[in-house]
Amino acid sequence: MDKAFRQRDASSDFGELLDTTGYSPLPDDWLIGITDVVDSTSAIARGQFKDVNYAGASAIAALGNAFGNFDFPFVFRGDGAAFAFDPDVRETAVGVLRRVAGYARDHLQLKLRIGLVAVKDIRAAGSDVKVARYAASETATYAMFAGGGLNWADREIKAGNHALLPCQEYATPDLKGLTCEWAPIPSRRGDILSLLVEPQDNISPEAFTLLARRLLALLGVKDGSSRPVPEDVVITSSVADYLGGKGWTDVVLNSDYRRYDDVLRLTLDCMPEQIKNVEALLTSAHDRGEVYFGMHRQSHALMTCLVPVGARGSHLHFLDGMGGGYTAAASLLEAQRHAHQPR
Length: 343
What we know:
By secondary structure, the chain is of the alpha+beta class. The chain contains ten helices and 16 strands.
């Protein structure tokens, strides 16, 4: 990675990271990558929810294994991922991403859309890409993104621009350490809620930060009561070995059930009253023209795990809802955005 780019120290306070004014801009020559499963809604309806999540996380695993580290900024988005890297590794990354798309096609029967766009092109279009780091625990750190650049890149790539084609020949990417074999995690409080909240252009960053913090308080994120991964799981010695000698407590701490990547993205175990109050809060904010949002309830959460081969103690656990989760919530958010577009 580019030694000239220095991120600020990671914060252990997720609420603090909702104030995006302290995020660090990425260098102009860095590249933003976006992947997503085409028509993931149909794949989930066919029962391929684990395959969709595995494909979504596959680019992160394959890139990290190819780079020899997972220090680059990335975020799991359910049916895809977003990530950034410096131009020195572009050739390696392009080869990896084309193999990942070929793997999804040949082994999972899924079409994985992939694309790359330079940060300078995103800025030329009026958006930005800034990053911060969230320290979920002493061993797990997740990137957060702000500036609108990921959303701009996502729309561009879905429109067919900046696309990379899958490799035609049979070539398996290095996905060591990635697994989606955990049993679905049932809700203990009512429903697993998948929630996406995106600020509209006419809400100030300060106002959105206040709204998001109020939302997190309603949902019990601050005190951990809505964390979807239960704490009382007993694991076998083989699972502990797989986790690099770590216990289940580390799995709970290292799970990315909360993130920000131009969109506040949450997977939470919620009581019905909490969901009702949150929906009322967000509906009012939407009616005022402040946010777009999408929410989806389901009975279980899914966990896709990445345990780096060379640093198993730094395992990461990606969360989504089993009933379509972020994919279903994103469809509702997109419908709100489309309804606001000029006719």
